[in-house]
């Protein structure tokens, strides 16, 4: 799914052709409530809590082996982000894409600067927040 906060739209990409209307619609109702909950108090009164529109992006059936969902997902996100045509992601080239993703992850895991940053990372402390009721 791709949530567009500006256009108030949820685009659903599913290469198996299934429509999970119940789950997606519930999510589309919840998004504006979450956004409103994090708004500053002066903007909350003017905020529209209307459900986001849901659209299903036409996808051809892919992933016949069932083992490449992660690779397909990453590549669809990449195409969407870069404005590329989704036809670039297909069963013929997904294996090479999996190898490239694997190599990129291996390369990052062996990067000394990244290893150091990861070993010294301390999560930020958060101030306790009051609970926000969304419904």
From TrEMBL:
Domain of life per record: Eukaryota
A Pfam short name: Peptidase_C48
Listed SUPFAM superfamilies: Cysteine proteinases
Record key words, sorted: Hydrolase, Protease
Domain (Ubiquitin-like protease family profile) ranges: 2-108
InterPro entries registered for this protein in UniProt: Papain-like_cys_pep_sf (IPR038765), Peptidase_C48_C (IPR003653)
Family: Belongs to the peptidase C48 family.
Record's protein name: Ubiquitin-like protease family profile domain-containing protein
């Amino acid at each position: 799914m791709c949530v567009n906060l500006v256009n108030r739209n949820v685009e659903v990409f599913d290469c198996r052709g299934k429509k999970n209307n119940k789950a997606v619609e519930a999510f589309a109702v919840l998004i504006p409530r979450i956004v409103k909950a994090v708004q500053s108090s002066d903007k909350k009164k003017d905020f529209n809590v209307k459900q986001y529109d849901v659209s299903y992006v036409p996808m051809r059936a892919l992933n016949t082996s069932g083992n490449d969902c992660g690779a397909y997902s990453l590549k669809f996100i990449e195409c969407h982000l870069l404005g590329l045509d989704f036809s670039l992601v297909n069963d013929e080239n997904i294996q090479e894409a999996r190898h490239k993703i694997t190599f990129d992850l291996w390369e990052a895991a062996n990067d000394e600067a990244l290893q150091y940053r990861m070993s010294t990372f301390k999560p930020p402390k958060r101030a306790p927040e009051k609970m926000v009721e969304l419904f």
